[in-house]
Amino acid sequence: MKIAVIGGGAAGFFAAISAKTHHPDAEVHLIEKSSKLLSKVLISGGGRCNVTHACFNNTQLSKYYPRGERFLKKAFEQFNVEDTVNWYKAQGVDLKIEDDGRMFPISNDSRSIANALLDQAKILGVIILLNSHVKHISKSTDAFHLNIGDEKFNYDNVIIASGGSPKKSGLSWLEELGHDVVSPVPSLFTFNMPKESITHLMGVNVPKAKLRIRNTKLETSAPLLITHWGMSGPAVLKLSAFGAIDLAALDYTFSVQVNWLDTMNESNLRIEVDNQGLDKEQKKIANRNPFALPSRLWEFLLRKSQISLDKRWIDLSKKELNRLVNTLTNDDYKVDGKTTFKEEFVTAGGVDLNNIEVTSMQSKKLPGVYFCGEVMDIDGVTGGFNFQAAWTTGWIAGKLKSI
């Protein structure tokens, strides 16, 4: 039996390894169009590789996927986070859990993960073909025919792990095979705010803020990072993932409301001011920051509220207090554009999940073809979830239901 795995990324490698593990007598070809393997694995997490996330409840885990939640909930019954941890441990790579739940190799080096995949593929006898672009796939009665360069190769089964595409045209070859494709749009991007002066605070981190996209139902509470182009951090990345389709429809021009005190509303904030007796404080308001906000941000918000940094709390007028309360809990910023998050490009969209059998990852349109990874209409928030989807779908695809 000959099996073709198209794509030399995380999902493709795991599918090839799974195929040889479950079918040791098969000849497995891992076909990569470029000269590089596991590119995203190597750059992920700043070169440390965010392998997965320490969420061991499959139902809870599936909620981190804006597209594919119900599909993956079933898939995780076959291969989940615990299986990922155990698989890498068996290869001699132990993972560690960071405070935010992200999991990395103890080595803090993504090459540990890449080498584990490369070594296991070599041990199992996976044949790797680099600089091999699949130009066309056709099907006859007894085989799939892949045009690679100027040659034609025949395979019994094909696993497609070619990754996401920024444009639908990049997936047209899958439509030609009879599949429905959901038009791709970017996910996991940061917000550009070219006209907002808050960008002067680049580098400021807020441990937890509540963000809401005005005129939508999109909101989240998470850490926020101010950058030289606008806003980033988990709060923004989560919003961009869950709002990928809506924000694309808005052409990435919208307003974001920020509550710098997370869940504290105006009423509770006024009670907090009274409880702390701030209105009787003799200290300058700039030097008495009762909300544990970064000092540069605190001063910025005071200026935005038209309050002098030299003013004492006791001298704060009712109007000034009202402006400050509104700024802290109902701040507003204009977003005009996006920036892809580092080099970890992720798309929403791909092969429609209705075309894929979840228990096997086999195409319902063309039996013998299997899918895994980002080529499917699956994407997760940042934090190791996209890699977990790659390990899970790759492992299941490699089992080959029809054999």
Q: What does the largest sheet look like?
A: 7 strands, antiparallel
- Strand ordering within the main sheet: 17-16-13-14-15-12-18
From the coordinates shown, what is the CATH architecture of the largest domain? 3-Layer(bba) Sandwich
- What is the highest CATH level, the class of the largest domain? Alpha Beta
Q: Look at the helices and sheets and give the structural class.
A: alpha+beta
Q: How would you describe the shape?
A: elongated
Describe this structure in words.
The protein has 403 residues and is α+β, with helices and mostly antiparallel strands. The protein folds into 2 domains: 239 residues, FAD/NAD(P)-binding domain (3-Layer(bba) Sandwich); 152 residues, no CATH class. Helices cover 31% and strands 25% of the residues. A hairpin with a 4-residue loop joins β20 and β21. The longest helix has 15 residues.
Highlighted features:
alpha+beta; 13 helices; 2 domains; five-stranded parallel β-sheet; 403 residues; 31% helix; seven-stranded antiparallel β-sheet; FAD/NAD(P)-binding domain
